[in-house]
Amino acid sequence: MIKKIHLTLLLVLTVVFGFSNLKAQKKDNPAKIKNVVLVHGAFVDGSGWKGVYDILTKRGYDVTIAQIPLTSLKDDNAAVRRILDKLDGQAVLVGHSWGGTVITEASSHKNVGSLVYVTAFQPDKGESTDTWYSSQPGFPEAGILPPDNEGFAYYDVEKFHAGFAADLSHDQATFMAHSQKPILASSFITAVTAADWHTKPTFGIVPTSDKSINPIILRNMYKRSGTKVTEIKGASHAVFISHPQEVANVIIEASK
């Protein structure tokens, strides 16, 4: 009789603990995608992703930061695709600002599992960055200058803090302004030829105090595409630097 009770108790405990473990696994919801590719935008380079990179790598993600040349949509797309070609499995492809146009062009690659737009342009086939940038009035703080004699556009150093990185320190914004990477202005009027946000899970981040891209533009693009949107109150265009945890959280969600 005692032996039978012990066996019954053991069976009950096995079921209970087994169920508890199952609940824990569901709650943890482990990532299905372990690769992440981060793409910077115009006027900056990949170093701004350092905070997001640190968070994701500590969580076990394999993170690659694309250093795109900003010389054309074709060149930038090729730089991202070279990274995707080398991956073992699918990736969450993340773009900031102009990088959104780039990841849209690269979105048809077989190793792109999901897309994250960080205050980023999201054109459709046949549309360019300027299609959307010119769709709403800009802010006086914005500082994109007319192209120089070689066709490259820079961001006004005097406006960089207020227009690009208002939620960063003055010293950090000043350094970014003086180390900025110009973009060939013709890139902005080049139409994309792919837009797999139609068929792949897509997430977007809207910083409510962005002065470089009018948040209305972001909301309009993301509403059209059915993108799952996260708004970060008070964040600037440099949200990927100033709010790395919130940005990383969206990327982690996109990996699941």
Number of domains: 2
Q: What structural class do the secondary elements suggest?
A: alpha/beta
Q: What proportion of the residues is helical, as a percent range?
A: 40-55%
Radius of gyration: 22 Å
CATH class of the largest domain: Alpha Beta
Summed up, the helix count is 10
- Segments where pLDDT lies below 50 for 5+ residues? 1-27
Q: Which second-level CATH architecture of the largest domain applies? A: 3-Layer(aba) Sandwich
The proportion of residues in beta strands is: 5-15%
Strand count, sense and barrel status of the largest sheet are: 6 strands, parallel
Tell me how many strands there are.
8
Helix/strand order, N-terminal first: HEHEHEHEHEHHEEHEHH
The strand order across the widest sheet is 2-1-3-4-7-8
Under CATH, the homologous superfamily of the largest domain reads: Alpha/Beta hydrolase fold, catalytic domain
* Span between termini: 49 Å
Written overview of the protein:
The N terminus is likely disordered. α4 links the parallel β3 and β4. This protein is globular. It folds into two domains: 30 residues; 222 residues, Alpha/Beta hydrolase fold, catalytic domain (Rossmann fold). It starts with a helix and ends with a helix. With 256 residues, it is an alpha/beta fold. The protein is 40% helix and 15% strand.
Summary, kept brief:
The chain has helices at residues 2-28, 50-58, 73-85, 98-106, 129-133, 160-164, 170-178, 215-225, 239-242, 244-254, and strands at residues 35-39, 62-66, 91-96, 112-118, 152-153, 183-184, 202-207, 228-232. It is α/β, with parallel strands linked by helices.
